């Protein structure tokens, strides 16, 4: 008998979906790693250097002590009033754990919570947003989720009715968006970021692409903006953001603001402004613009990817639509409570005067300043390579250099039935153990080639990466130079 | 300008989806609770007694100490080698935490893991399945998920192409299934459990419903079986399970086995057998049957709902289909690491000789024997009510009594534009504070009325629930008796 399920009989939307960040190159890297473990001299390198994914702690970044203290105490509250605990934990972590437990009905950290998340934690997050923006935030607008990804899926599920519904997405984009749109059967309407102006986001380009989509019978429902940019690392200027808000208001689009890198800004001339703050400062309120802001505990200086915490702040939707969002959230009951707690902590870290404040701020500043140095070193290294240009990483965790590949290399890639950028990344990996993600996984102007490189390897690894990359690139160009 | 999103312009699949466990009655209960908090004598009861959801710790069930010790230590590993830690934590929890940390690359509990979950934890889970079933389990078949719900969604997403694809589901069913099928745009093909034979699952009924669906042009792709049953509480006999396996094999259906209540069996004459064990004991292997088993940390004696841990074991699918399941899992990166760790712990709890074994088994047995007593007390109470009959809860966490409502009550419900069972539950809630879920949220034979009641309120609350329920029922019947 034929098997009940074959690739020809599964949901074609699943087949269409792609997710390059964990795609082919990464699978190859994992295989090479296993080969090295079995036979240390199997390849011309001793270890795989993963620069493919924004996963800081996998590369040695240490968690913020205060956050972990609070999580541990909330996981095992019965030690809270033991005397040994005073010796092991900071006084303010103990105090914070008590506060959080008091916000949880019955202090039950093992219970399902309200489907939007524990009310007291949402109060804390709303207060954190208010402090950040200087404008009010409503705890009832917060939906806590297992990282930002499920929140993005939830909004796509709500907005997409068929392939006739379109979502405006930056190109290059973070492939969660293309994957989620494909899974929900919608149409990705691309708008191109301008590499020549540091990955600038031009409203004229948005308008052009919107009109093109309309002319094809597509109803564009929302605009995705990733700020700071992934994979492009730019930080939007406030003026630019105002134009974007105005555009969404004029065109009746939901603004989906991916703001998960809000703490990751590395240049003094740029500052993060939330789209909520920008729209409120323009005088636009609930009735003027539908805005969803995504935040995650996986990024920032904390990088707590494995905790799967995050939230979306949903503003400017009618009550009956909000009820539908709540219903979808309720089908999965709630997000994990540790992730919820952590989301509240990143929005209200220790303050001046708290016992942990000094160690906390030293840890935070150490991580952020090191990330800034790593970004600069890698940017400079890329810009020294023949045929490579690289914009500054003003924020986020990535560089997205452009590589001008020789015709001969493009032909060799064609012969190997692979995209030229994937060909380069594969060669780089097998020669050096360095894992980059080909630009084709994020989208790029046709005929241009890029790759994404995270700035996350520990600082003492960076010189080695630069050396290996430079040597490889030299020999690759020697082999294929026209 | 019109708002960008209205209920008329959202995805109609979202509108169609329903989830009664957190539906209207629960919203009303939450409102009543707020009123009582403001004004203690606002209603004729002092507290809301939530019997609507399988959320044990929200009603006072305590977590298993060993599990929480290990979680806390993994959250804050830097205390592991401090001397105070020996005084606060059991020796085997410290040992187990070290073991787990050694299984995590770089001991980074804050990193994204492999998208199926940490390999070492999957090894532990596979070993636990082997010990349970006496048949081999492959760690590569395990997909760790944030509770069982996302795993169910993932399979529905894979299997459902359009409304022409059907999924056979028990009626009554747990509304996650109807909600997930609606969200993915498929057709729920009902099969009725036989209340007269203790919610028996007859293969003749499966065949009949399969044929009916086929005659309507529906391609039935999978059979959902919930064992022990939710909301019905029955435990399937092994012979019955063999017939079900044979049916799936014959008809080329994927068997989706919801086995999250595998530890919740309360009667000595019944035992839980996994469908994997049953099919392997029939000599059916990978090539013979496509089987997915769902497990969760939210149920059992642990009841760790807030941790959102769970897994599915996926067997009998071709490698290229498995790759597609992996891809969908990878779009969300990974499930939360604490939930992953807890899933490994419930599948490998302390063993005889471990320091924690005695306290662990006392906690476990205390919870399970108390649940058995509560189930029996509530079952007896329901069976004493006029016009109510209630099957035994052999397992799971629920009773699903049938109520024969007087014609006058049905007319009153019609006048109030509500289903008769919802009418009864609403009256019960406003009179007593007790929250049941109407049977219409789970499905029932047309013209019959039921409600679901969990057996989870703490034992000292049960007499009060019985008294209040009995008094209410008496007066309700007095009011409406024909």
Automatic annotation (TrEMBL), chains A, B:
It comes from the Eukaryota. Pathway: Amino-acid degradation; L-alanine degradation via transaminase pathway; pyruvate from L-alanine: step 1/1; Photosynthesis; C4 acid pathway. GO terms for biological process: L-alanine catabolic process. One of its GO terms (molecular function) is L-alanine:2-oxoglutarate aminotransferase activity. Residues 106-468 form the Aminotransferase class I/classII large domain. Transmembrane segments: none annotated. Gene3D superfamilies: 1.10.287.1970, Aspartate Aminotransferase, domain 1, Type I PLP-dependent aspartate aminotransferase-like (Major domain). Keywords: Aminotransferase, Pyridoxal phosphate, Transferase. CDD domains: AAT_like (cd00609). Its EC number is 2.6.1.2. It holds the Pfam family Aminotran_1_2. InterPro entries: ALAT1/2-like, Aminotransferase_I/II_large, PyrdxlP-dep_Trfase, PyrdxlP-dep_Trfase_major, PyrdxlP-dep_Trfase_small. Its cofactor is pyridoxal 5'-phosphate. Belongs to the class-I pyridoxal-phosphate-dependent aminotransferase family. Alanine aminotransferase subfamily. Homodimer. This is alanine transaminase. It comes from Corchorus olitorius. The lineage of its organism: Eukaryota, Viridiplantae, Streptophyta, Embryophyta, Tracheophyta.
């Amino acid at each position: 008998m034929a098997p009940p399920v074959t690739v020809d009989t599964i949901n074609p939307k699943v087949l269409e979906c792609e997710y390059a960040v964990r795609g082919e190159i990464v699978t190859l890297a994992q295989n090479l790693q296993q080969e090295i473990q079995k036979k240390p001299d199997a390849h011309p390198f001793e270890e795989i250097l993963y620069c493919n994914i924004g996963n800081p702690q996998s590369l040695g970044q240490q968690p913020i002590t205060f956050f972990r203290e609070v999580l541990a105490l909330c996981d095992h509250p019965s030690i809270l009033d033991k005397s040994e605990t005073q010796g092991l934990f900071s006084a303010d972590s103990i105090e914070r754990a008590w506060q959080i437990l008091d916000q949880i009905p019955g202090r039950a950290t093992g219970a399902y919570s309200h489907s939007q998340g524990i009310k007291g934690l949402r109060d804390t997050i709303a207060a954190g947003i208010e402090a950040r923006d200087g404008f009010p935030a409503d705890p009832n607008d917060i939906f806590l989720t297992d990282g930002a990804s499920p929140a993005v899926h939830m909004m796509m599920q709500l907005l997409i009715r068929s392939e006739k519904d379109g979502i405006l997405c930056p190109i290059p984009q973070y492939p969660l968006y293309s994957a989620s749109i494909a899974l929900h059967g919608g149409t990705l309407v691309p708008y191109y970021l301008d590499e020549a102006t540091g990955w600038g986001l031009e409203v004229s380009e948005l308008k052009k692409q919107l009109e093109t989509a309309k002319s094809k019978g597509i109803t564009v429902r929302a605009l995705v903006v990733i700020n700071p940019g992934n994979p492009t690392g730019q930080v939007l200027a406030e003026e630019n953001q105002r134009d974007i808000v105005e555009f969404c208001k004029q065109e009746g689009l939901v603004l989906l603001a991916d703001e998960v890198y809000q703490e990751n800004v590395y240049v003094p001339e740029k500052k993060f402004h939330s789209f909520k703050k920008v729209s409120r400062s323009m005088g636009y309120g609930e009735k003027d613009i539908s805005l969803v802001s995504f935040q995650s505990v996986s990024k920032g200086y904390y990088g707590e990817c494995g905790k799967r915490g995050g939230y979306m702040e949903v503003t400017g939707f009618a009550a009956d639509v909000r009820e539908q969002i709540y219903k979808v959230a309720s089908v999965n009951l709630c997000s994990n409570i540790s992730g919820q707690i952590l989301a509240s902590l990143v929005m209200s870290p220790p303050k001046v005067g708290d016992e942990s404040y000094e160690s906390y701020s030293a840890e935070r500043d150490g991580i952020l300043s090191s990330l800034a140095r790593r970004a600069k070193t890698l940017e400079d290294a890329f810009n020294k390579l023949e045929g490579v240009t690289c914009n500054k990483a003003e924020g986020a965790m990535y560089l997205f250099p452009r590589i001008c590949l020789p015709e001969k290399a493009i032909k060799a890639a064609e012969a190997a039935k692979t995209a030229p950028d994937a060909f380069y990344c594969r060669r780089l990996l097998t020669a050096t153990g360095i894992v980059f993600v080909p630009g084709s996984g994020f989208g790029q102007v046709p005929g241009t080639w890029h790759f994404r490189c995270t700035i996350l390897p520990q600082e003492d690894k960076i010189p080695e990466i630069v050396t290996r990359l430079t040597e490889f690139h030299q020999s690759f160009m020697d082999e294929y130079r026209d």
